[in-house]
């Protein structure tokens, strides 16, 4: 049995060795949630294209909406 037959011959069906980033094939920092299978660096790069929005931006928009609603309710009463 030579080196070519043994090299990378172990089956990799589960575990960290079986998964890699779909963009850059990196195995570290993998985000598997929602079936993304992207490393964190690629996720940061493509998050807007995928449709992810930062939560803090939504919180700011929601708090602004709540303040305007309170002002509207106070004026109409």
What does this 3D model show about the protein?
A two-stranded antiparallel sheet has the order 1-2. The chain has one domain (11-76): Ribosomal Protein S14/S29 (30s Ribosomal Protein S14, Chain N, Irregular), CATH 4.10.830. It has helices spanning 3-6, 40-50, 55-76; strands spanning 30-31, 38-39. It is built from three helices and two strands, in the order αββαα. Helix content is 48%, strand content 5%. The chain starts with a helix and ends with a helix. The mean pLDDT is 85. 4% of the residues are buried. By secondary structure, it is mainly alpha-helical.
Give a summary of the structure in a few sentences.
With 77 residues, the chain is mainly α. 48% of the residues lie in helices and 5% in strands.
Mean pLDDT: 85
Rg on CA atoms, Å: 23 Å
Please identify the top-level CATH class: Few Secondary Structures
Number of spatially distinct domains: 1
Shape estimate: rod-shaped
| Strand order of the biggest β-sheet | 1-2
Q: Structural class of the helix and strand makeup?
A: mainly alpha
CATH superfamily: Ribosomal Protein S14/S29
Percentage beta strand: 5-15%
Number of helices: 3
What are the defining features of this structure?
mainly alpha; 5% strand; two-stranded antiparallel ribbon; 77 residues; 30s Ribosomal Protein S14, Chain N
């Amino acid at each position: 049995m030579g080196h070519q037959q043994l090299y990378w011959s172990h089956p990799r069906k589960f575990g960290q060795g079986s998964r890699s980033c779909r963009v850059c094939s990196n195995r570290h920092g993998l985000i598997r949630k929602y079936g993304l299978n992207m490393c964190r660096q690629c996720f940061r790069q493509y998050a807007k294209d995928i449709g992810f929005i930062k939560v803090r931006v939504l919180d700011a928009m929601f708090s602004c909406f709540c303040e305007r609603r309170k002002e509207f309710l106070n004026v109409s009463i």
